[in-house]
Every structure is written in structure tokens, then in C-alpha cells.
Specification:
TIM Barrel; 8-stranded parallel sheet; 37% helix; Copper homeostasis protein cutC homolog
Length: 231
């Protein structure tokens, strides 16, 4: 029997979270300020969502637009605050100005997570060298997922990279799950599943009315059916 594919949905509030779970989401990514591509939500929002649903939630640790870490002391404090709120899974990723991973910032934040599981987000799609980034992060506690479109412009351009990286599963730096998101469409799913990629991330696709509208349970259910049918 094939393993159920993972469907992760971006949630901005408890209403989104409830609709996503009802539609069949396996996990949520919690953010705010999508105009800045997703920042850390307020602790009160995280607490409300954790109370509203019983599926895993990953909280974004990002304080400003872009991929620079910024004030790492503040990031560490926010990570600790989120843990105190009840969060146990996270999303993060920081680059230096030259496009290399900011390993010091990542390691400091990860240390504050105390072994919690986390995703390195689409900063990888803006890295100067994806392979070097993966190898630099290999072995960090809790890292189990890369959220990636394969290219900064989205899955259409990044699909060959995603398929090539999936073929390297088991190599150093390639043990983590590939979670595909960023311009992802339903017609991409069969190609990705055929390559062994079984995790999918949607944001705008879960909101047919746009980001000013809440998550649509029906839209999430459509994706659930699609990834299950193709599996």
C-alpha cells in the first residue's frame, strides 16, 4: 500500500487552521504578513491555532522580509517564546549576503529549539549553491524537511532540480524530506510523485479568493483528493 502523501497548508489564523484540517491537511505552516512572504505570527495566534486543531503545526521563525537573519538575539528570544506558547515544530532559514547559508544564525536558533523538528524554507531556492547549503546543514538536530520549489521563480522552472535532487535521496545532505511549494499546481503532482516526492505545500492554492480570503475547505479537499489519487 502506498504511503499517504503529506499536504501542508499555510494558515494565518484559527479559522484557516480549522478549514485546512477539515479539508484534509496533514500539517500547517503558521505565518503572518504574506506581503513579506510570511513572518512569525503573534504568540496569541499560535496559541489559538494549537487549541483549535490537532494536526501538527510548524511556526515560521522570520522577523523581516528577505533571507537575512537580522537580529539573531531577538530570533532566539522569539523561538523560546513560541516554545513556551506550545509550539513544537518550526520553519526557518537564513542566508548571508553572498547567498551562502548563515550557519551561525541557524545554529543559534536551532539550539533554542531544543531538538524540535524544523523545516529549512525556500531560502534554499535563493542560495548560491544548493548542494553546499544542504551539506553545511547536514546533521543539525531536528532538521527533517526542505521546503523548495527548485528555483526562486517557482516549480515550473525548478522541476528538473527537484527531480534531480529526489534521485539523490540517501546521500549526505539529502536525507530530509522534500516539501514542494512555490507556484505548485495540481498538474505538477504526478511528476513529483513519480520521482518519489511525497510532500506538498500550498498557500494561495488553498484560497481561491486570494490572500484576503480565508482558507477554503473545498480547495484543500481538492488537493487532498488529487495527491491521494496520484499516489
Amino acid at each position: 500500500m502506498s504511503k499517504r502523501a503529506v499536504l501542508e497548508v499555510i494558515a494565518l489564523d484559527a479559522q484557516d487552521a480549522i478549514a485546512a484540517q477539515a479539508g484534509g491537511a496533514d500539517r500547517l505552516e503558521l505565518v503572518t504578513e504574506m506581503a513579506a512572504d510570511g513572518l512569525t505570527p503573534p504568540a496569541a495566534t499560535v496559541a489559538a491555532i494549537l487549541k483549535a486543531v490537532d494536526i501538527p503545526v510548524r511556526v515560521m521563525l522570520r522577523l523581516a522580509d528577505g533571507f537575512a537573519a537580522g537580529d539573531v538575539d531577538r530570533l532566539v528570544a522569539v523561538a523560546r517564546e513560541m516554545r513556551e506558547t506550545g509550539a513544537r515544530e518550526f520553519v526557518l532559514g537564513f542566508l548571508d549576503a553572498d547567498g551562502t547559508v548563515d550557519l551561525d544564525a541557524v545554529e543559534r536558533v536551532v539550539a533554542a529549539l531544543g531538538g524540535c523538528r524544523w523545516t529549512f524554507h525556500r531560502a534554499i531556492d535563493n542560495a548560491a549553491d544548493r548542494d553546499a547549503l544542504r551539506k553545511a546543514l547536514d546533521g543539525l538536530p531536528g532538521l527533517d524537511t526542505y521546503l523548495t520549489a527548485g528555483a526562486s521563480t517557482g516549480v515550473d522552472e525548478g522541476l528538473p532540480t527537484l527531480l534531480a535532487e529526489a534521485a539523490r535521496d540517501g546521500e549526505p545532505g539529502y536525507d530530509q524530506q522534500v516539501l514542494v511549494g512555490g507556484g505548485l499546481r495540481l498538474d505538477h503532482v504526478p511528476h513529483l510523485l513519480a520521482a518519489g516526492i511525497t510532500a506538498f505545500h500550498i498557500g494561495g492554492a488553498a484560497r481561491p479568493g486570494g490572500w484576503t480570503e480565508p482558507v477554503s475547505e473545498a480547495a484543500v479537499a481538492q488537493w487532498r483528493r488529487a495527491v491521494d489519487a496520484a499516489a
